[in-house]
Specification:
alpha+beta; 4-stranded antiparallel sheet; 7 helices; 14% strand; globular; disordered C terminus
Length: 199
């Protein structure tokens, strides 16, 4: 598929569906676009968001060189988990206000963050202290990822970054922000295709 195969208007429609959390199948049916095309744009959107969140994390670290870290992990059979164990992709979370910042650990290594207690998890919805914001994010992400059970390991990071983005922008109209983010990133939807920028 060539990069210019969809108009800016159509791309914005795809972004609108993505922002509304429609699946690629639902978006393809709604916009009458081939599912594979939607999948490619969805992946590009997620990659753009991941890059954006990484830059936000770097800004956060510059302002908070030694933040407190909390552990979460992704296990291919259990999904998102708070219990350290083998064969888990480890992440740590840090908090500023009601925003979370995700940093990745190396797969299979012992996590460096604090493991949350069951009590902290139960309190999260009612008491948004810094510690419990992590639990609130965990519960939020856990429920969102339920529909993505069986995510391939190479795509887990994209989904985690997307949820970090959505969580931190719950009071923001997402579609214009996503458009701004993807407009700044060169796009290549196929291996070997030329890259260009969306304007």
């Amino acid at each position: 598929m060539k990069i210019n195969s969809l108009s800016k208007h159509r791309i914005k429609k795809i972004i609108g569906c993505f922002a509304s959390e429609l699946t690629a199948i639902d978006t393809a049916q709604k916009l009458k676009i081939h599912r594979n095309t939607v999948n490619k744009y969805y992946r590009f959107i997620r990659e753009s968001i991941a890059s954006y969140q990484h830059s936000q994390y770097e800004i956060f670290l510059a302002e908070h060189p030694s933040p407190e870290k909390f552990y979460i992990g992704w296990h291919r059979n259990l999904g998102l988990t708070l219990n350290p164990q083998p064969d888990t992709i480890h992440y740590h979370l840090s908090v500023e206000g009601r925003h979370v910042f995700v940093g990745a650990e190396v797969e299979g290594q012992t996590p460096t963050g604090t493991v949350l207690s069951e009590g902290q998890q139960q309190e999260a919805a009612n008491n948004l202290s810094n510690d419990n914001v992590v639990s609130y994010f965990y519960n939020y992400a856990k429920s969102k990822l339920t529909k993505f059970y069986g995510v391939r390991p190479q795509y887990v990071d994209l989904y985690i970054r997307e949820l970090e983005f959505r969580f931190n922008n719950q009071e923001t109209t997402l579609a214009p922000l996503i458009w701004k983010i993807v407009s700044q990133k060169p796009i290549s939807l196929e291996e070997g295709s030329e890259t260009t920028a969306i304007h």
